[in-house]
Amino acid sequence: MSDDLYGQGLKDLAGREPAAVAGPDASASLDNPLCGDRIDLDLKVEEGRVAAFGHRIKGCLLCKAAAGLAAEQAVGLDAGQAQHLLAQLSGLLKTGAEPAVPALAVFLPVRPHKSRHGCVLLPFKALVKALGG
Q1: Rounded CA gap, 41 and 30, in Å?
Q2: Model-level pTM?
Q3: Cα–Cα dist 21/8, whole Å
Q4: Average pLDDT over the chain, rounded to whole?
Q5: What is the full DSSP assignment across the chain?
Q6: What is the pLDDT of residue 2?
Q7: Domain residue spans in the chain?
Q8: Could you count the other beta carbons within 10 Å of the beta carbon of residue 24?
Q9: Has domain 3-130 been given CATH number 1.20.5.440?
Q10: Residue 25: partners with Cβ closer than 8 Å, 6 or more residues away
């Protein structure tokens, strides 16, 4: 795999300390059986929208970076918007489609590495699951 796969933007996202959420309103846990990544996600939800996002992760740099970006993007989203965010990221990884959320473009170097797509999608799938999607 090329060094481009682990660019500084991804390293910065992965290096952020994950937040914790006390007394979550919604939670989800997901595993990626192909690589062993695991995310345990907790949300505070107010009026159907994410008010706080916390997570514990055991995973690779890509999964950690995705969790960091999901934490940034999730606040204020409802279930439908979270699903749309996941669809945008999936489209970017599958076809290189330009995402409506420019921050997702940091994952464009992952596109040629199909075996790593699940690592990036896992936190966003957990977000959708936690919101009941």
Answers
A1: 9
A2: 0.93
A3: 28
A4: 93
A5: --GGGG-HHHHHHHTSPPP--SS-SEEEEEE-TTT--EEEEEEEEETTEEEEEEEEEE--HHHHHHHHHHHHHHTT--HHHHHHHHHHHHHHHHH-PPPSSGGGGGGGGGTT-GGGHHHHHHHHHHHHHHTT-
A6: 43
A7: 3-130
A8: 17
A9: no
A10: 43, 44, 45
